[in-house]
Amino acid sequence: MTESNYGQAWGEVLMFLLGGLLFVGAALFVSRLIRPNRPGEQKLTSYESGEQAQGSAWVQFNVRYYIIALIFLLFEVEIVFLFPWITTFTDQSAQKATGGEWGIWLALEMTVFILVLALGLAYAWRKGFLDGVKPRPQTADFKPVVPRRYYDKINEQYQSR
User: Fold this and answer.
1) Which domain holds residue 68?
2) What does pTM read for this prediction?
3) How many domains does the chain have?
4) Is residue 136 left, alpha or beta, with left meaning phi > 0 and alpha meaning psi from -120 to 50?
5) Is residue 4 very low, low, confident or very high in pLDDT (cuts 50, 70, 90)?
6) If DSSP codes are grouped into helix, strand and coil, which group holds residue 141?
7) Would you give the distance in Å from CA 84 to the centre of its chain?
8) Is 129 exposed, middle or buried (0-12, 13-18, 19+ CB in 10 A)?
9) Is 127 among the domain residues?
10) Which residues of 4-32 are buried (b: 16+ CB within 10 A; e: fewer)?
11) Is 109 within a domain?
12) Which of 68, 69, 61, 62 is nearest to 129 (CA)?
């Protein structure tokens, strides 16, 4: 590729970017001009599934939720890598040009990639990051006003049956 062709290719990319930005900007400007503007107290309130908001939005979540979200994103990225890999793996012209070695290297590469991800998943599973939050039962410090001997008397009646 010569210098002039290289610069011309980047010029085309720049023109498409500028055209796209100009189109989006014009659409936003026109929509702002023609939309109705009638703010009110009801429209400015926060909305939570049809219920009134209660408390602050700044609450602390358990860290496990973030870890599960990160693991989910990790496997979503894996899927993004698998799509181009499978299209390249099934390319018959590349297979013929390399005598079949291309497919072997691609299969080996993806096997290593999936094994590393499986190892990470096994580590997260073993450490308990995928477990839900387990509640800890707490006994109440209840001081009854009825003396203990009355409870024992009632319990004796039911034990004899």
Assistant:
1) 62-131
2) 0.45
3) 1
4) beta
5) low
6) coil
7) 21
8) middle
9) yes
10) eeeeeeeeeeeeeeeeeeeeeeeeeeeee
11) yes
12) 68
